[in-house]
Amino acid sequence: MVWIHGGANLSLAGGWEPVYEGRPMVARGVVLVVLEYRLGVFGFMAHPGLTAESPHHSSGNYGLLDQIAGLQWVRDNIRAFGGDPGNVTVFGQSAGSWDIMALMTSPLARGLFQKAILQSGVPPPSVTRTLADSEKAGEAMAARAHAPSTDTMKFLRSLTAEQVIAAAEGLNLFTQDGWILPEPPSAAWMRRQELPVPIIIGGNASEFPAQGTLPELRQAMASWFGELAPDAWRLYGIAGEQEPPVDPVYGDVRDQWGSDLNFRIPGILHGEWHQAAGNRVWQYEFDRAIAPHPRVQHSSELAYVFGNFLRRGGMVSGEFDAADRHLSDVMLGYWTNFAKHGDPNGAGLPAWPEFEPVGRGFMRFTQAARAVADARQRGDFVPLFRRCLEKSGDLHR
């Protein structure tokens, strides 16, 4: 099992974060590799000078190249650690899930893994720039660093890491370079051209909220849904002037709209597309809040996936009890069963239904710390988003 951490491709690390400590997972009979990769300006900056140096006429995507190099290392060396290079599962969360979904569209990653687990992260079209646009962003960074127009790369390489970072802004996006990424990952997934491997895909009931007043939320939905906006206002409970009640699982309307738009429903739809291409898919939703927080948050599931419960410190901590540890045992069982056999189900675990488009079955990890098979995740919201995409004919919106 190869872990790719999140952090918007700008921050955090695998070995530094205590929630990723691997002993509970390794105890389930898997070999765990936690990858590090270059981030921000060091991992994703493109520039004409860098492109000119490349035999592939490419720049940017260095963080993805690091991940590919890590997977090649696993292929070449993991037998010495008791692993099987023909049975590799990549799993990641947030930007780590973005990166895996990108790797699933890269010719350079073919054959390096056989399964994928995608937690709380689907790369939207806006996360990928053309090479020309990425190079312009790199040139802007060089200008902020006061680099000369000649020997620009030599000058930038003479700076300290701190000086480079201080000049960097927003250099965390993928580049459609024609070598690592022949097209935006979102476009490849929409055309069913991603790697044909089994996946688990899902997210948390609440990830990140949207911002704004009720009129601003209505306008945002009108911009996204067009003539279908009244249906969206009705489902979200904002057709009138009153603030709708807070849902005990999904939070208030801002929690719901932000999480639906940027995390949950893109994940559900990508799972649908992957299954329609003939691949096996299991979907999930994680609802368990970590006390003292009233609702689940982005990254909450990591404590359960890795089996590490921190009272303080780290990116996931709080007040855990025996119910949390039981839920973690169940999730560790599912995740490692999938890694071993390509199916999360196994002895002693509640049956997790494989996704199919009629019942839309999924596993709900509930607020009460139970694993419960469910159907039609997010109910009528998913068909509404799907109708909007089909009606517009623009799957890149």
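^ that was protein a. below is b, sequence first then the tokens
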Amino acid sequence: MCCLPTFFYDYRKGAKRVRGVCSACGQEFELAGVRHNAEGSCPCCGRKFTMKSNQKRGRIWDRETVSVVQRLRENELVVRILKASRWQARGCSAELDFYEETRIVIRQTKPGKFDVFPYHYSPYDAVLTPWKTGYPPVMYLYGQNFNAETCGYLYTRNLSRELKGTPWQYCQLDAFYEGIHDQMEAAPYLAAYPEIPAIEFFVKLELFWLASQIVYRGNSKDGRQLINLQGKNLRDVLQIDPSDLPWLQRPGSGVQDLLLLRILRREGHLPDGEFFFGSSVECVGKEN
């Protein structure tokens, strides 16, 4: 279960409104009817939160995963997986700690073929280097290993510089990251792009879900080829009419919408809202 953001405030006896900060958006504002551990919603970002008095709260603690992409050679990149944590005890200054846990090298092994070589930090039994081949263990004895997570926020300020002059110069990784509005694994995207340059085309068309499908799930849907990667135009690649593109650019679009558009075009229908928001599941099930 995901924890709610927090509204931190300083308690004032008899005050009808108190000033505090929303941890989701960082905005400061006044709120009425505030009680410790009660739930409310932020008037700035709309997120629900839990109210916490600074006089009663315990230690604040959080941690995140961040990916940093760097160039090693012209045909070789490394994705550094950093772990960052921050905590603040009541009445104390915040403390920040970060460390590099995993390195994922993406290297050209043959013409047109790029492979992934992961390494993880392990100081135990270190001889020449503490960096060992492979990913960290996913599970500890009593739970999941946070250090094994490679999905996280992407540092984008250095991307244009690091990718310039490499096979990834036009890969649109930063645009894809901004488009999905979520954390991501950078290594699979970078490994797939040189072999499937059409990913750049999908991202420029704002078909972020389709690029994600190809990178992380492959070009298939129930054993069928989803798109024609050898096509020369939009009609060849997606097997739909170019005028259908806005339907696939809507937030929440996905594979089922693409399959539905193909059915409609095959049967001579024009797409409209009734098809997409009404009986899409029933229609998609009819495709052979």
